Automatic annotation (TrEMBL):
Keyword entries, A-Z: Methyltransferase, Transferase
Any one GO molecular function term: methyltransferase activity
GO terms for biological process, alphabetical: methylation
Domain Methyltransferase: 85-193
Organism annotation: Eilatimonas milleporae
Pfam families assigned to the protein according to its UniProt record, in alphabetical order: Methyltransf_25
Coiled coil: none
UniProt protein name: Putative methyltransferase
Amino acid sequence: MRRTTSNERTAVLKRILGNTAHCRRIVGALGVFLLMGVASLAAAVNPIEDALNTADRLAGDKARDASRRPAEVLAFFGVKPGMRVLDLFSGGGYYTELMARAVGETGWVVAHNNDAYLAFSRATLQTRYAKGRLGNVRRQVSEGDDLVLPNDYFDFVMMALTYHDLYFVGDNWPAIDAERLLREVYESLRPGGIVGIIDHVAPAGTGYEAAQRLHRIDPALIEGGMRTIGFDLDGTSDVLVNPDDPLDIPMFDPAIRGKTHRTVMRFRKP
């Protein structure tokens, strides 16, 4: 069957509508109407908001929403349907679940943990993945220095409150070769891929010792470390700023826990 050309379709419209000027006005109006409809549909379908409003979210997750502001954070990082995501040191999986729901059936999330995070979050993880919840999540367990990822695979890598852990050493937390791990992350991203980093802010100039002493890090060290690997700083957000945080007390201190001043940084692989 011969397909009609655009000129033939315009001619039919002209015969129906009478004259060219009128035809153009109607076609223009139809175009505006269609664009408004698409915009309205896009506004109505917000995968991140839908993820937040899922009926079976864990109560503990909902309780953290006010201080973590995940809608703004994930929108800033650009999480959207169809993405391949790595949640590095995903802990109890707060962001894993939100991202899994936001990327939808056409995307998936790799939830990475090491043994320490796995033990710390065991009860939460049992509930989170019970009865086949989050079918588009693949779980991976390895220490930082043993992490192996596929090349040119992920669209987005999340590091939520864990970048400072690359420079922490504890009884159950082996030392990590931060540069090697970050290069592994770099190679795992597709060109244009994003790393989203959230972390507790340490005073400027404190160096990596703040990671050991305070579980915090100077944002300048994050930027320098990521640029050394080859990432470009693509943007920062003040969505988690807290000017009342003194910065010089451990993030576990009850006076500030859950309310720390946090940096939110977006890095892009060229």
